[in-house]
Predict the 3D structure of the following.
Amino acid sequence: MRNIDLTPLYRSFIGADHMANLLDSLEVAESGGFPPYDIEVIKENQYRITLAVAGFSRNEISIEQESNQLRVSGVKEVSSSDANYLHQGIAKRNFERRFQLADHVEVRSADYRDGLLHINLAREIPEAMKPRKIEIGQEASGESLSRASEKETELLEG
């Protein structure tokens, strides 16, 4: 199977639910869907990814964020168990899941409880990028413009 790099399309993965569902269906076919996960919106600009990682300990799970990519991997420690299974349905294979995060989305915390790994994310848009209201002055004379420029210069220097 040929790998297709859909990275540019993932740019708004967290927060764009309809696109996430489409891309998730493509990823499940490629990765086999292990480990299964949920993405939920906690409230505006706060999200949680939950992965079902039963059988893994905290020490066997790694979470890394680099730029806009979140990578969760699990490496199962080799055990010399003499168990004789009739059926072994609990996956104990290594895994790696990658999530493409939208701009300004960062991992805030992670918690492991009852076989579920919860990763809390938040989107914080810098003040400089938030919309701001621009007041329109009544005068547009050169004198009022020069006074405004002087005030801006003072603020930038001070």
About this structure: The chain has two helices and seven strands. The CA atoms of residues 55 and 88 lie 12 Å apart. The first strand starts at residue 37 and ends at 43.
